[in-house]
Design brief:
Blueprint lengths: L2 E7 L1 H4 L6 H16 L4 E7 L2 H14 L5 H22 L22 E4 L8 H12 L3 E6 L4 E2 L11 E2 L1 E3 H8 L13 H10 L2 E6 L3 H8 L7 E4 L2
Parallel strand pairs: 1-2, 1-4, 2-3, 4-8, 7-9
Antiparallel strand pairs: 5-6, 8-9
Length: about 230
């Protein structure tokens, strides 16, 4: 039986300002070690847009008098594809197929690693990760970003915000709502949350730069992060 894990790798850790080659080198080594420890293991990486997405979306908003959400989404999607191509190159030894740009169209997983980018406007790559988890039978999506845990509010704006270790889908969705807005800073996409709740998915939100913590999550050991799951 294959053991497939889906990692939504935030653009904020791939390219926070510029490409973080030190992190990517450490990430590759850790994932290589994880894969080689058990030949049945497979990994799906879904990449966010990071600094390129923010930079180009901001330029668009500054120039266009009435910016359109769909156009901003397309700009962000192109940035995710750039990051996905980079990861595919780094993991070329394990990745035997092209970057997946439509999670509903892929049907096979011939290698040990699959790399996916953004798909279309209306949601973030978190939703693509959920779709791929559903398609390939993964029960958990590991959502890696620049925050270690989900908080009751944005800690940058609310000093009283408290970290959350575990939260139900119902309670999480009441926090974030149902609508996706390009560039909105949320721990997990509301559209993805709706689908995740429907299929009974478990999502772990954790800091993406703690390589050992990522290994702990993948190996079902004690870890630092927040779990969103069924009631």
């Amino acid at each position: 039986m294959q053991h497939i894990k889906v990692l939504s790798v935030g653009g904020s850790i791939i390219a926070p300002q510029e490409v973080d080659t030190s992190f990517l080198h450490s990430f590759y080594q850790a994932m290589h070690s994880y894969l080689e420890a058990d030949q049945k293991r497979k990994l799906v990486f879904v990449t966010g847009g990071g600094a390129p997405a923010r930079t180009y979306q901001r330029a668009y908003r500054e120039i266009v008098e009435v910016p359109e959400d769909e156009e901003q989404d397309w700009i962000g999607i192109e940035a995710t594809r750039l990051n996905a191509r980079l990861l595919k190159g780094i993991f070329s030894h394990y990745c035997r197929q092209e970057v997946v740009s439509d999670p509903t169209a892929v049907s096979q997983f011939p290698g040990r690693v699959m790399v996916a980018s953004g798909w279309k406007p209306g949601f973030s790559t978190d939703n693509d990760a959920v779709l791929l988890a559903e398609k390939f039978g993964a029960d958990t999506v590991v959502n890696l970003s620049n925050i270690e845990k989900i908080y009751t509010a944005d800690p940058k704006e609310d000093p009283g915000a408290e970290p959350i270790d575990a939260i139900s889908w119902a309670d999480f969705r009441s926090m974030v709502g149902d609508e996706w807005t390009p560039g909105r800073n949320l721990p997990f996409d509301p559209v993805a949350a709706k689908r995740g709740e429907r299929i009974g998915l478990r999502v772990v939100c954790a800091g993406g730069r703690d390589i050992e913590n990522i290994r702990a999550i993948l190996e079902d050991r004690s870890f630092t992060g927040s779990v969103i799951g069924p009631d």
